C-alpha cells in the first residue's frame, strides 16, 4: 500500500464531505467569514479547489487551469468537477517517481525546488488547514461540520 496515495484519497473524500455539507447553508451564510481564516466559506472552498488544481498541474508539468472566481461563487457542481479532475491528477503524480524533484517559480519570482513526495504532502496539508477553517465558520453558524478526521460516517 502506498501511504501517500491513501492520504490523497483521504484528502479527496474529506473535500467531498465538506462540499456536500456546504450545500445546505444559504448563499448569505456562504458569505460568512471569521477572523483568522482565509475568507468566507465560499471563497475558502474555491481557494481549496484552485490550489489543488495548481498543485496537480505543477506536478504533471502542465499549466494550471484558469482559477475559478471566488465572487461570484461558481457553484458546487463546478467545484466538484474541478476537484474530481485534480484528485485523479494528484494520484497519477503520486504513482510516478516520488523521489524526483519539482521546480517552480513562486509569486515573488523565487525559484523553488522540493521532492515530489513533500510537495504532495503540502497539497494535503493545505486542504486540511482550509477545511478546518470552513468547519470553524460552519460551527459559528450553528451548522455541524462533517467528520473530517477519517472516521466512518453513517449513510
Kindly list the characteristics that best describe this protein.
mainly alpha, 2 strands, 57% helix, 6% strand
Plain-language structure description:
The chain is mainly alpha-helical and 155 residues long. It has a single domain (3-140), classed as dinb family like domain (Four Helix Bundle (Hemerythrin (Met), subunit A), Up-down Bundle), CATH 1.20.120.450. The chain has helices at residues 3-22, 27-30, 41-59, 76-95, 116-140, and strands spanning 101-105, 111-115. It has a two-stranded antiparallel ribbon with strand order 1-2. Strand 1 and strand 2 form a beta hairpin. The longest helix has 25 residues, at 116-140. The chain is globular. The relative contact order is 0.21. The mean pLDDT is 93.
What is the alpha-carbon Rg in Å? Answer: 16 Å
Task: Please report the number of helical segments.
Answer: 5
Helix and strand element order: HHHHEEH
Distance N to C terminus: 26 Å
In terms of DSSP E residues, the strand content is 5-15%
β-strand number: 2
Count of individual domains: 1
Layout of strands and helices, then pairs:
Layout: H1 3-22, H2 27-30, H3 41-59, H4 76-95, E1 101-105, E2 111-115, H5 116-140
Antiparallel strand pairs: 1-2
Summarize the structure.
The chain has five helices and two strands.
Amino acid at each position: 500500500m502506498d501511504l501517500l496515495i491513501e492520504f490523497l484519497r483521504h484528502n479527496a473524500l474529506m473535500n467531498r464531505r465538506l462540499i456536500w455539507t456546504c450545500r445546505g447553508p444559504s448563499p448569505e451564510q456562504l458569505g460568512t467569514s471569521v477572523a483568522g481564516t482565509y475568507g468566507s466559506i465560499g471563497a475558502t472552498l474555491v481557494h481549496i479547489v484552485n490550489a489543488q488544481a495548481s498543485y496537480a498541474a505543477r506536478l504533471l508539468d502542465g499549466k494550471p487551469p484558469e482559477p475559478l472566481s471566488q465572487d461570484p461563487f461558481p457553484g458546487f457542481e463546478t467545484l466538484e468537477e474541478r476537484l474530481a479532475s485534480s484528485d485523479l491528477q494528484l494520484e497519477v503524480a503520486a504513482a510516478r517517481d516520488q523521489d524526483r524533484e519539482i521546480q517552480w517559480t513562486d509569486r515573488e519570482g523565487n525559484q523553488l525546488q522540493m521532492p515530489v513526495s513533500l510537495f504532495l504532502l503540502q497539497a494535503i496539508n493545505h486542504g486540511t488547514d482550509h477545511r478546518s477553517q470552513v468547519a470553524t465558520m460552519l460551527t459559528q453558524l450553528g451548522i455541524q461540520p462533517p467528520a473530517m478526521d477519517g472516521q466512518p460516517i453513517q449513510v
